[in-house]
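Bumping my old thread because nobody answered last time. Still need a sequence for this structure:
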């Protein structure tokens, strides 16, 4: 079993940037965190060090213990692209989830952190370092990626008392359907997705005649 980080390493982790996870410390401290799998060294200059999903979990658990309240519980669940990368810490709201309450300050912080982390993941994994085009992870998690882009821009997911967006998978490769109740909101969602690097078109569902968006990650 992996040994827990030392007190000095915890201090470095707790001092990480709350959004990007960027670390500050001595070379030996950073190298030790990399060896433990709690940090990684960015391959591009200036070769900064950032928390991995495991490192973020330790940081957020510490924040939760320090606060000891509901906000601490929210902090313990927060994450960025680190969470998007399959850790299960963060889940974008695709619309229609049961038991979801309206967004409060904790959720807003969580979504902002996740979006900033996803932009960093784009920068790290797109060959040209581009952040205005979806990365490989987004192409394999289409529904979650589109939902995160919408929620991060302030659009509201559908709920029990909210007529918001619903993002759903489609039979088409690399395409999701975004169902929005009114034309103005639909146009707003389309603009958001286009700015986030998606190609978007509006279509009519043959059976119900309802209008919806079809969105695909842009490749260039």
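Sorry it took so long. Here it is:
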């Amino acid at each position: 079993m992996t040994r827990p980080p030392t007190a000095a390493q915890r201090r470095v982790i707790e001092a990480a940037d709350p959004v990007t996870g960027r670390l500050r410390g001595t070379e030996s401290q950073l190298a030790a965190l990399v060896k433990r799998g709690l940090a990684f060294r960015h391959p591009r200059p200036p070769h900064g060090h950032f928390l991995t999903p495991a490192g973020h979990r330790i940081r957020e658990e510490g924040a939760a213990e320090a606060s000891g309240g509901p906000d601490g519980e929210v902090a313990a669940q927060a994450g960025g692209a680190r969470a998007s990368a399959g850790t299960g810490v963060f889940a974008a709201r695709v619309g229609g989830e049961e038991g979801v309450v309206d967004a409060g300050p904790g959720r807003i912080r969580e979504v902002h952190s996740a979006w900033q982390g996803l932009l960093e993941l784009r920068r790290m994994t797109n060959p040209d370092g581009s952040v205005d085009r979806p990365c490989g992870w987004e192409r394999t998690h289409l529904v979650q990626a589109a939902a995160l882009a919408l929620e991060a821009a302030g659009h509201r997911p559908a709920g029990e008392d909210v007529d918001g967006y619903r993002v759903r998978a489609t039979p088409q490769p690399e395409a999701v359907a975004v169902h929005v109740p009114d034309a103005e909101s639909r146009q707003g969602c389309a603009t958001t997705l286009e700015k986030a690097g998606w190609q978007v078109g509006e279509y009519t569902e043959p059976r119900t005649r309802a209008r919806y968006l079809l969105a695909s990650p842009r490749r260039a």
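Confidence is low (pLDDT under 50) at residues 67-89. Let me know if any region looks off to you.
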